[in-house]
Fold:
Amino acid sequence: MNLYRKILNIIAKIATVISMIAVLVMVSFIVMELIRRNIFNRSFRPTIEICGISFLWMAFMGIIPLYNQSGLMRLDFLISRVKGPAYEGMVLLNKLVSLMLGVIMVVAFCAQYPFVSTRFYSTFSTKVPYSVQYFPMAIAGAFMALKALEELIEWLVRNFGKKGKEEQA
Structure:
């Protein structure tokens, strides 16, 4: 389980770097476009598409480190007020919903792929398929599912592993 956790942490660090690069790309292209339009009275047509792609990469890659460190907004204000079996049930429900959300994100990408892989951006000189902007959703979904699976296994061990050892003794 430690190796699994280390791999997820490495993926989260890579996603952090990708998210920061996406922000840098967005800011650079927006500033470049402002300078080109206001000073040189010209425009770079693919700016909007590049910024849109960068935004989606930033948003979905940004989910990964947040989810890895339990930084996403959750219903902790409800869970923290509950004790005993109700608390454990709410934690389990939270992890199951996270697992399902991650799987749904991957399934949604797979369902969209035949459509978005055959459409291309019109402003790029090379053929860039629309799937470029949807791919980070699949990556984030896969990560969420894998992380939720890890947390579910830990929850099961915490709640049923100790009882099994106590009953055997």
